[in-house]
Amino acid sequence: MRAGLTILFVLTVPIVMFAQTEPPDSLWSRTFGGSTWDRGYSVQQTTDGGYIIAGETASYGAGSNDVWLIKTDANGDSLWSRTFGGSDADLAFSVQQTGDGGYILTGYTSSYGAGDNDVWLIKTDANGDSLWSCTFGGSDDDRGYSVQQTTDGGYIIAGYTCSYGAGSQDVWLIKTDANGDSLWSRTFGGDPDDRAYSVQQATDAGYAIAAATRSYGAGGWDFWLVKADANGDSLWSRTFGGSSSDVAKSIQRTSDGGYIIAGYTMSYGAGVNDVWLVKTDDWGYPRWYSTFGGGLADAGHSVQQTTDGGYIVTGYTTSFGAGFYDVWLIKADANGDSLWSLTFGGSGEDRAESVQQTTDGGYILGGYTWTFGAGSGDFWLVKTGPDLPLQPPQGLVAWVDEDSLRLAWQPVSAATSYNVMWSPLPFDGTWSLLTSTSDTTAEDVIGTSEKRFYNVTAVN
Q1: pLDDT per position as a tens digit, 13-29
Q2: Residue that terminates a domain, selected from 330, 365, 389
Q3: Is 142 exposed, middle or buried (0-12, 13-18, 19+ CB in 10 A)?
Q4: Measured at the alpha carbon of residue 283, what is the angle toward residues 215 and 304, in degrees to the nearest 5?
Q5: CB atoms within 10 A of CB 244
Q6: Most C-beta atoms within 10 A of its C-beta, which of 73, 80, 279, 295?
Protein backbone atom coordinates (compact mmCIF):
# COMPACT_ATOMS: atom_id res chain seq x y z
CA MET A 1 0.00 0.00 0.00
CA ARG A 2 1.32 3.44 -0.85
CA ALA A 3 1.28 5.83 2.06
CA GLY A 4 -0.44 9.13 1.65
CA LEU A 5 -2.95 7.96 -1.05
CA THR A 6 -6.30 9.52 -0.30
CA ILE A 7 -9.42 7.85 -1.77
CA LEU A 8 -12.68 9.71 -1.62
CA PHE A 9 -15.89 8.44 -3.18
CA VAL A 10 -19.52 9.55 -3.07
CA LEU A 11 -22.48 7.18 -3.35
CA THR A 12 -25.11 8.71 -1.11
CA VAL A 13 -26.73 10.45 -4.09
CA PRO A 14 -25.56 8.64 -7.24
CA ILE A 15 -26.02 10.41 -10.52
CA VAL A 16 -28.53 8.69 -12.81
CA MET A 17 -28.99 10.42 -16.15
CA PHE A 18 -32.61 11.14 -17.01
CA ALA A 19 -32.43 9.09 -20.20
CA GLN A 20 -31.38 5.94 -18.38
CA THR A 21 -34.56 3.92 -18.08
CA GLU A 22 -35.75 0.36 -17.91
CA PRO A 23 -38.35 -1.07 -20.28
CA PRO A 24 -41.91 -0.51 -19.04
CA ASP A 25 -44.18 -3.21 -17.70
CA SER A 26 -46.85 -4.67 -19.96
CA LEU A 27 -50.18 -3.81 -18.33
CA TRP A 28 -52.64 -5.70 -20.53
CA SER A 29 -53.39 -6.87 -24.04
CA ARG A 30 -56.67 -7.49 -25.85
CA THR A 31 -57.59 -9.37 -29.02
CA PHE A 32 -60.63 -8.73 -31.20
CA GLY A 33 -61.76 -10.99 -34.00
CA GLY A 34 -63.72 -13.92 -35.28
CA SER A 35 -63.09 -17.22 -36.96
CA THR A 36 -61.25 -15.84 -40.02
CA TRP A 37 -58.68 -13.03 -40.26
CA ASP A 38 -58.88 -9.53 -38.84
CA ARG A 39 -56.09 -6.93 -38.84
CA GLY A 40 -55.66 -3.66 -36.97
CA TYR A 41 -53.63 -0.89 -38.62
CA SER A 42 -54.15 2.27 -36.57
CA VAL A 43 -54.78 3.12 -32.91
CA GLN A 44 -55.23 6.39 -31.05
CA GLN A 45 -56.03 7.26 -27.45
CA THR A 46 -59.34 9.13 -27.27
CA THR A 47 -60.25 12.10 -25.11
CA ASP A 48 -62.13 9.87 -22.63
CA GLY A 49 -58.97 7.84 -21.94
CA GLY A 50 -60.04 4.89 -24.06
CA TYR A 51 -58.85 3.85 -27.52
CA ILE A 52 -60.06 3.79 -31.12
CA ILE A 53 -58.73 1.11 -33.48
CA ALA A 54 -59.26 0.79 -37.23
CA GLY A 55 -58.42 -1.94 -39.72
CA GLU A 56 -60.15 -4.68 -41.63
CA THR A 57 -62.25 -7.71 -40.82
CA ALA A 58 -63.02 -10.84 -42.79
CA SER A 59 -64.98 -12.27 -39.85
CA TYR A 60 -67.79 -9.70 -39.83
CA GLY A 61 -69.52 -7.30 -42.20
CA ALA A 62 -70.98 -7.48 -45.67
CA GLY A 63 -68.12 -8.40 -47.97
CA SER A 64 -64.92 -10.37 -48.35
CA ASN A 65 -63.39 -7.93 -45.88
CA ASP A 66 -64.80 -4.72 -44.44
CA VAL A 67 -63.50 -1.68 -42.60
CA TRP A 68 -63.66 -2.41 -38.86
CA LEU A 69 -63.76 0.33 -36.22
CA ILE A 70 -63.57 -0.62 -32.54
CA LYS A 71 -63.91 1.68 -29.52
CA THR A 72 -62.60 0.52 -26.15
CA ASP A 73 -62.48 1.87 -22.64
CA ALA A 74 -59.26 2.68 -20.79
CA ASN A 75 -58.78 -1.02 -19.97
CA GLY A 76 -59.06 -2.12 -23.59
CA ASP A 77 -62.53 -3.63 -23.20
CA SER A 78 -64.78 -3.14 -26.21
CA LEU A 79 -67.54 -0.55 -25.93
CA TRP A 80 -68.77 -0.84 -29.51
CA SER A 81 -67.64 -1.80 -33.00
CA ARG A 82 -68.79 -0.87 -36.48
CA THR A 83 -68.17 -2.31 -39.94
CA PHE A 84 -68.30 -0.38 -43.20
CA GLY A 85 -68.25 -1.90 -46.64
CA GLY A 86 -69.97 -3.64 -49.50
CA SER A 87 -69.64 -6.93 -51.29
CA ASP A 88 -65.93 -6.57 -52.13
CA ALA A 89 -62.76 -5.68 -50.22
CA ASP A 90 -62.75 -2.53 -48.04
CA LEU A 91 -60.28 -1.55 -45.34
CA ALA A 92 -58.99 1.37 -43.25
CA PHE A 93 -55.32 2.13 -42.65
CA SER A 94 -55.71 5.28 -40.56
CA VAL A 95 -58.07 6.69 -37.93
CA GLN A 96 -58.10 9.92 -35.94
CA GLN A 97 -60.52 11.38 -33.44
CA THR A 98 -61.89 14.66 -34.74
CA GLY A 99 -62.60 17.89 -32.91
CA ASP A 100 -66.32 17.09 -32.60
CA GLY A 101 -65.57 13.81 -30.79
CA GLY A 102 -66.23 11.65 -33.83
CA TYR A 103 -63.73 9.86 -36.06
CA ILE A 104 -62.21 10.18 -39.52
CA LEU A 105 -60.92 7.09 -41.36
CA THR A 106 -59.17 6.51 -44.64
CA GLY A 107 -58.17 3.44 -46.60
CA TYR A 108 -59.56 2.06 -49.82
CA THR A 109 -62.70 0.46 -51.17
CA SER A 110 -63.32 -2.07 -53.93
CA SER A 111 -67.08 -1.97 -53.32
CA TYR A 112 -67.69 1.68 -54.22
CA GLY A 113 -66.18 4.36 -56.42
CA ALA A 114 -64.97 4.55 -59.99
CA GLY A 115 -62.20 2.03 -60.33
CA ASP A 116 -60.40 -1.06 -59.16
CA ASN A 117 -59.74 0.44 -55.70
CA ASP A 118 -60.62 3.98 -54.65
CA VAL A 119 -59.47 6.08 -51.73
CA TRP A 120 -62.23 5.97 -49.12
CA LEU A 121 -62.84 8.68 -46.53
CA ILE A 122 -65.38 7.91 -43.79
CA LYS A 123 -66.63 10.32 -41.12
CA THR A 124 -68.46 9.00 -38.07
CA ASP A 125 -70.02 10.48 -34.98
CA ALA A 126 -68.79 9.73 -31.45
CA ASN A 127 -70.71 6.42 -31.47
CA GLY A 128 -69.10 5.21 -34.68
CA ASP A 129 -72.19 5.72 -36.83
CA SER A 130 -71.44 6.95 -40.34
CA LEU A 131 -72.21 10.61 -41.07
CA TRP A 132 -70.85 10.60 -44.61
CA SER A 133 -68.27 8.92 -46.83
CA CYS A 134 -66.47 9.97 -50.00
CA THR A 135 -64.47 8.12 -52.63
CA PHE A 136 -61.63 9.50 -54.72
CA GLY A 137 -60.11 7.79 -57.71
CA GLY A 138 -60.14 6.83 -61.33
CA SER A 139 -60.25 3.60 -63.25
CA ASP A 140 -57.16 2.01 -61.65
CA ASP A 141 -55.82 1.32 -58.15
CA ASP A 142 -55.96 4.30 -55.73
CA ARG A 143 -55.40 4.02 -51.97
CA GLY A 144 -55.33 6.23 -48.89
CA TYR A 145 -52.87 5.38 -46.12
CA SER A 146 -52.97 8.37 -43.78
CA VAL A 147 -55.51 11.01 -42.76
CA GLN A 148 -55.34 14.00 -40.45
CA GLN A 149 -57.84 16.68 -39.56
CA THR A 150 -56.41 20.07 -40.56
CA THR A 151 -56.58 23.35 -38.68
CA ASP A 152 -59.39 24.62 -40.95
CA GLY A 153 -61.61 21.68 -39.95
CA GLY A 154 -61.09 19.80 -43.20
CA TYR A 155 -58.92 16.76 -43.88
CA ILE A 156 -55.66 15.87 -45.59
CA ILE A 157 -55.18 12.39 -47.09
CA ALA A 158 -51.97 10.83 -48.37
CA GLY A 159 -51.63 7.62 -50.35
CA TYR A 160 -50.99 6.69 -53.94
CA THR A 161 -52.74 6.70 -57.28
CA CYS A 162 -52.38 4.56 -60.36
CA SER A 163 -55.10 6.53 -62.15
CA TYR A 164 -53.35 9.89 -62.30
CA GLY A 165 -49.83 11.33 -62.32
CA ALA A 166 -46.62 10.69 -64.19
CA GLY A 167 -45.80 7.08 -63.39
CA SER A 168 -47.41 3.73 -62.79
CA GLN A 169 -47.92 4.80 -59.14
CA ASP A 170 -47.63 8.35 -57.80
CA VAL A 171 -47.89 9.90 -54.37
CA TRP A 172 -51.38 11.35 -54.02
CA LEU A 173 -52.26 14.20 -51.66
CA ILE A 174 -55.93 15.13 -51.33
CA LYS A 175 -57.34 18.10 -49.39
CA THR A 176 -61.01 18.17 -48.47
CA ASP A 177 -63.32 20.51 -46.62
CA ALA A 178 -65.12 19.53 -43.41
CA ASN A 179 -67.75 17.63 -45.42
CA GLY A 180 -65.23 15.55 -47.35
CA ASP A 181 -65.63 17.45 -50.61
CA SER A 182 -62.35 17.74 -52.51
CA LEU A 183 -60.72 21.18 -52.54
CA TRP A 184 -57.65 20.09 -54.48
CA SER A 185 -55.40 17.11 -55.09
CA ARG A 186 -51.76 16.84 -56.11
CA THR A 187 -49.61 14.04 -57.44
CA PHE A 188 -45.86 13.71 -56.88
CA GLY A 189 -43.60 11.27 -58.64
CA GLY A 190 -41.88 10.09 -61.74
CA ASP A 191 -41.51 6.77 -63.46
CA PRO A 192 -42.01 4.09 -62.18
CA ASP A 193 -43.43 3.99 -58.61
CA ASP A 194 -43.93 6.34 -55.67
CA ARG A 195 -46.15 5.80 -52.63
CA ALA A 196 -47.06 7.93 -49.59
CA TYR A 197 -47.70 6.26 -46.25
CA SER A 198 -47.96 9.14 -43.77
CA VAL A 199 -48.78 12.86 -43.73
CA GLN A 200 -48.56 15.61 -41.11
CA GLN A 201 -49.71 19.19 -41.28
CA ALA A 202 -46.76 21.52 -40.68
CA THR A 203 -46.64 24.67 -38.57
CA ASP A 204 -46.87 26.83 -41.74
CA ALA A 205 -50.18 25.11 -42.68
CA GLY A 206 -48.40 23.11 -45.36
CA TYR A 207 -47.84 19.36 -45.34
CA ALA A 208 -44.96 16.95 -44.76
CA ILE A 209 -45.28 13.58 -46.48
CA ALA A 210 -43.33 10.41 -45.76
CA ALA A 211 -43.16 8.31 -48.91
CA ALA A 212 -41.17 5.68 -50.74
CA THR A 213 -39.83 6.42 -54.20
CA ARG A 214 -38.40 4.36 -57.01
CA SER A 215 -38.31 7.38 -59.32
CA TYR A 216 -35.63 9.31 -57.45
CA GLY A 217 -32.78 8.62 -55.04
CA ALA A 218 -29.96 6.12 -54.91
CA GLY A 219 -31.53 2.67 -54.76
CA GLY A 220 -34.48 0.44 -55.47
CA TRP A 221 -36.79 2.29 -53.07
CA ASP A 222 -35.68 5.33 -51.07
CA PHE A 223 -37.16 7.26 -48.18
CA TRP A 224 -38.82 10.32 -49.71
CA LEU A 225 -39.70 13.38 -47.67
CA VAL A 226 -41.90 15.83 -49.57
CA LYS A 227 -42.84 19.26 -48.20
CA ALA A 228 -45.85 20.96 -49.76
CA ASP A 229 -47.35 24.38 -49.07
CA ALA A 230 -50.92 24.98 -47.92
CA ASN A 231 -52.15 24.56 -51.51
CA GLY A 232 -50.36 21.25 -51.96
CA ASP A 233 -47.65 22.61 -54.24
CA SER A 234 -44.20 21.13 -53.68
CA LEU A 235 -41.70 23.35 -51.86
CA TRP A 236 -38.86 20.82 -51.61
CA SER A 237 -38.19 17.11 -51.30
CA ARG A 238 -35.37 14.97 -49.93
CA THR A 239 -34.43 11.34 -50.50
CA PHE A 240 -32.58 9.10 -48.04
CA GLY A 241 -31.22 5.68 -48.86
CA GLY A 242 -28.57 3.50 -50.35
CA SER A 243 -28.20 0.99 -53.14
CA SER A 244 -30.99 -1.33 -51.92
CA SER A 245 -34.56 -0.64 -50.87
CA ASP A 246 -35.43 1.78 -48.06
CA VAL A 247 -39.09 2.50 -47.31
CA ALA A 248 -40.49 5.29 -45.09
CA LYS A 249 -43.72 4.40 -43.30
CA SER A 250 -44.35 7.09 -40.67
CA ILE A 251 -43.60 10.77 -40.05
CA GLN A 252 -44.17 13.18 -37.19
CA ARG A 253 -43.31 16.82 -36.73
CA THR A 254 -40.91 17.24 -33.78
CA SER A 255 -40.77 19.92 -31.10
CA ASP A 256 -37.74 21.60 -32.75
CA GLY A 257 -39.70 22.13 -35.98
CA GLY A 258 -38.05 19.23 -37.82
CA TYR A 259 -39.31 15.75 -38.57
CA ILE A 260 -38.78 12.18 -37.40
CA ILE A 261 -39.30 9.43 -39.99
CA ALA A 262 -39.44 5.67 -39.39
CA GLY A 263 -39.44 2.75 -41.79
CA TYR A 264 -37.01 0.08 -42.83
CA THR A 265 -33.71 -0.10 -44.66
CA MET A 266 -32.10 -2.84 -46.70
CA SER A 267 -29.11 -0.62 -47.49
CA TYR A 268 -27.77 -0.23 -43.95
CA GLY A 269 -27.78 -2.08 -40.65
CA ALA A 270 -27.12 -5.61 -39.51
CA GLY A 271 -29.67 -7.81 -41.26
CA VAL A 272 -31.85 -8.40 -44.30
CA ASN A 273 -33.68 -5.21 -43.38
CA ASP A 274 -33.49 -3.10 -40.24
CA VAL A 275 -35.66 -0.52 -38.55
CA TRP A 276 -34.47 2.87 -39.81
CA LEU A 277 -35.00 6.13 -37.97
CA VAL A 278 -34.15 9.42 -39.71
CA LYS A 279 -34.20 12.81 -37.94
CA THR A 280 -34.25 15.96 -40.06
CA ASP A 281 -34.35 19.70 -39.49
CA ASP A 282 -37.24 21.86 -40.67
CA TRP A 283 -35.84 21.92 -44.23
CA GLY A 284 -35.57 18.15 -44.41
CA TYR A 285 -31.80 17.98 -44.08
CA PRO A 286 -30.67 15.01 -42.00
CA ARG A 287 -29.50 15.49 -38.41
CA TRP A 288 -28.85 11.81 -37.72
CA TYR A 289 -29.74 8.24 -38.73
CA SER A 290 -30.20 5.17 -36.53
CA THR A 291 -30.69 1.52 -37.41
CA PHE A 292 -32.04 -1.19 -35.11
CA GLY A 293 -32.07 -4.87 -35.90
CA GLY A 294 -30.42 -8.25 -35.97
CA GLY A 295 -29.47 -10.73 -38.65
CA LEU A 296 -32.97 -11.22 -40.07
CA ALA A 297 -35.84 -8.92 -41.10
CA ASP A 298 -36.93 -6.03 -38.86
CA ALA A 299 -39.07 -3.01 -39.78
CA GLY A 300 -40.48 0.16 -38.25
CA HIS A 301 -44.07 1.07 -39.03
CA SER A 302 -44.86 3.93 -36.64
CA VAL A 303 -42.94 6.60 -34.71
CA GLN A 304 -43.83 9.33 -32.25
CA GLN A 305 -41.80 11.84 -30.28
CA THR A 306 -42.17 11.26 -26.54
CA THR A 307 -42.58 13.81 -23.78
CA ASP A 308 -38.91 13.44 -22.72
CA GLY A 309 -37.72 14.46 -26.20
CA GLY A 310 -36.93 10.91 -27.30
CA TYR A 311 -38.80 8.64 -29.70
CA ILE A 312 -40.97 5.53 -29.52
CA VAL A 313 -40.97 3.22 -32.54
CA THR A 314 -42.91 0.07 -33.27
CA GLY A 315 -43.08 -2.50 -36.02
CA TYR A 316 -41.93 -6.08 -36.18
CA THR A 317 -38.85 -8.20 -35.68
CA THR A 318 -37.84 -11.63 -36.91
CA SER A 319 -34.39 -11.29 -35.35
CA PHE A 320 -35.57 -11.30 -31.74
CA GLY A 321 -38.52 -12.53 -29.70
CA ALA A 322 -40.45 -15.74 -29.40
CA GLY A 323 -41.86 -16.46 -32.83
CA PHE A 324 -41.76 -16.02 -36.56
CA TYR A 325 -42.69 -12.33 -36.40
CA ASP A 326 -42.95 -10.48 -33.09
CA VAL A 327 -44.12 -7.00 -32.23
CA TRP A 328 -41.08 -4.81 -31.53
CA LEU A 329 -41.22 -1.69 -29.38
CA ILE A 330 -38.08 0.49 -29.29
CA LYS A 331 -37.39 3.56 -27.15
CA ALA A 332 -34.65 5.91 -28.37
CA ASP A 333 -33.25 9.05 -26.82
CA ALA A 334 -33.17 12.47 -28.50
CA ASN A 335 -30.07 11.44 -30.48
CA GLY A 336 -31.60 8.20 -31.76
CA ASP A 337 -29.63 5.93 -29.43
CA SER A 338 -31.54 2.92 -28.10
CA LEU A 339 -32.56 3.05 -24.45
CA TRP A 340 -34.53 -0.19 -24.38
CA SER A 341 -36.63 -2.48 -26.53
CA LEU A 342 -39.38 -5.02 -25.91
CA THR A 343 -40.89 -7.82 -27.97
CA PHE A 344 -44.44 -9.16 -27.73
CA GLY A 345 -45.67 -12.30 -29.39
CA GLY A 346 -45.74 -16.05 -29.59
CA SER A 347 -45.01 -18.74 -32.14
CA GLY A 348 -47.07 -17.17 -34.94
CA GLU A 349 -46.97 -13.89 -36.84
CA ASP A 350 -47.50 -10.84 -34.62
CA ARG A 351 -47.04 -7.27 -35.86
CA ALA A 352 -47.63 -3.73 -34.64
CA GLU A 353 -48.66 -1.06 -37.11
CA SER A 354 -49.23 1.90 -34.79
CA VAL A 355 -47.93 3.33 -31.50
CA GLN A 356 -48.80 6.35 -29.37
CA GLN A 357 -47.61 7.59 -26.00
CA THR A 358 -50.59 7.72 -23.66
CA THR A 359 -51.50 10.35 -21.08
CA ASP A 360 -50.10 8.19 -18.24
CA GLY A 361 -46.67 8.18 -19.90
CA GLY A 362 -47.06 4.61 -21.15
CA TYR A 363 -47.66 3.36 -24.68
CA ILE A 364 -50.52 1.88 -26.69
CA LEU A 365 -49.74 -0.42 -29.61
CA GLY A 366 -52.16 -1.53 -32.30
CA GLY A 367 -51.64 -4.33 -34.78
CA TYR A 368 -52.58 -7.93 -35.27
CA THR A 369 -51.71 -11.38 -33.97
CA TRP A 370 -51.80 -14.86 -35.39
CA THR A 371 -50.61 -16.36 -32.08
CA PHE A 372 -53.48 -15.31 -29.82
CA GLY A 373 -57.20 -14.72 -30.24
CA ALA A 374 -60.05 -16.51 -31.94
CA GLY A 375 -59.10 -16.74 -35.61
CA SER A 376 -56.27 -16.88 -38.10
CA GLY A 377 -55.48 -13.24 -37.35
CA ASP A 378 -57.00 -10.90 -34.76
CA PHE A 379 -56.77 -7.22 -33.91
CA TRP A 380 -54.20 -6.88 -31.10
CA LEU A 381 -54.09 -4.04 -28.62
CA VAL A 382 -51.16 -3.91 -26.16
CA LYS A 383 -50.83 -1.38 -23.33
CA THR A 384 -47.63 -0.74 -21.39
CA GLY A 385 -46.85 1.42 -18.41
CA PRO A 386 -44.39 4.32 -18.52
CA ASP A 387 -40.62 3.98 -18.69
CA LEU A 388 -39.16 2.84 -15.38
CA PRO A 389 -36.15 4.65 -13.92
CA LEU A 390 -33.04 2.53 -14.00
CA GLN A 391 -31.91 1.84 -10.46
CA PRO A 392 -28.41 3.11 -9.61
CA PRO A 393 -25.68 0.66 -8.63
CA GLN A 394 -25.38 -0.02 -4.93
CA GLY A 395 -22.55 -1.10 -2.64
CA LEU A 396 -19.71 0.88 -4.22
CA VAL A 397 -16.42 -0.01 -2.51
CA ALA A 398 -12.82 1.02 -3.20
CA TRP A 399 -9.42 -0.37 -2.25
CA VAL A 400 -5.78 0.11 -3.19
CA ASP A 401 -4.02 -2.69 -5.06
CA GLU A 402 -0.34 -1.86 -5.50
CA ASP A 403 -0.31 1.30 -7.67
CA SER A 404 -3.98 1.17 -8.62
CA LEU A 405 -7.25 2.15 -7.10
CA ARG A 406 -9.92 -0.50 -7.66
CA LEU A 407 -13.67 0.04 -7.55
CA ALA A 408 -16.43 -2.55 -7.33
CA TRP A 409 -20.22 -2.39 -7.08
CA GLN A 410 -23.29 -4.58 -7.10
CA PRO A 411 -24.80 -5.44 -10.50
CA VAL A 412 -28.06 -3.89 -11.74
CA SER A 413 -30.31 -6.47 -13.40
CA ALA A 414 -31.42 -4.28 -16.35
CA ALA A 415 -28.02 -2.71 -17.03
CA THR A 416 -25.98 -3.60 -20.09
CA SER A 417 -22.99 -1.46 -19.09
CA TYR A 418 -21.74 1.01 -16.49
CA ASN A 419 -20.14 4.44 -16.82
CA VAL A 420 -17.50 5.18 -14.19
CA MET A 421 -16.95 8.90 -13.73
CA TRP A 422 -14.50 10.91 -11.63
CA SER A 423 -14.24 14.49 -10.48
CA PRO A 424 -11.45 16.30 -8.61
CA LEU A 425 -11.76 17.36 -5.00
CA PRO A 426 -12.64 20.10 -4.29
CA PHE A 427 -15.54 19.45 -6.66
CA ASP A 428 -15.40 21.82 -9.65
CA GLY A 429 -18.76 20.86 -11.18
CA THR A 430 -17.32 18.65 -13.92
CA TRP A 431 -17.20 14.88 -14.37
CA SER A 432 -14.78 12.96 -16.58
CA LEU A 433 -15.34 9.47 -17.94
CA LEU A 434 -12.89 6.94 -16.53
CA THR A 435 -14.31 3.95 -18.39
CA SER A 436 -17.43 2.31 -19.80
CA THR A 437 -17.56 -1.35 -18.90
CA SER A 438 -19.88 -4.33 -18.81
CA ASP A 439 -18.08 -5.59 -15.69
CA THR A 440 -18.83 -4.54 -12.12
CA THR A 441 -15.26 -3.47 -11.43
CA ALA A 442 -12.97 -0.68 -12.63
CA GLU A 443 -9.40 0.44 -12.09
CA ASP A 444 -7.82 3.90 -11.85
CA VAL A 445 -4.20 5.02 -11.48
CA ILE A 446 -3.83 8.34 -9.66
CA GLY A 447 -1.03 10.26 -8.04
CA THR A 448 -0.35 10.16 -4.32
CA SER A 449 -1.54 13.71 -3.81
CA GLU A 450 -4.75 13.45 -5.84
CA LYS A 451 -8.20 13.39 -4.30
CA ARG A 452 -11.17 12.28 -6.39
CA PHE A 453 -14.88 11.66 -6.25
CA TYR A 454 -16.09 8.53 -8.06
CA ASN A 455 -19.54 7.81 -9.41
CA VAL A 456 -20.96 4.78 -11.23
CA THR A 457 -24.10 4.97 -13.36
CA ALA A 458 -25.96 2.09 -14.94
CA VAL A 459 -26.81 2.16 -18.64
CA ASN A 460 -29.22 -0.10 -20.51
Answers
A1: 333 333 357 889 999 99
A2: 389
A3: buried
A4: 85
A5: 16
A6: 279
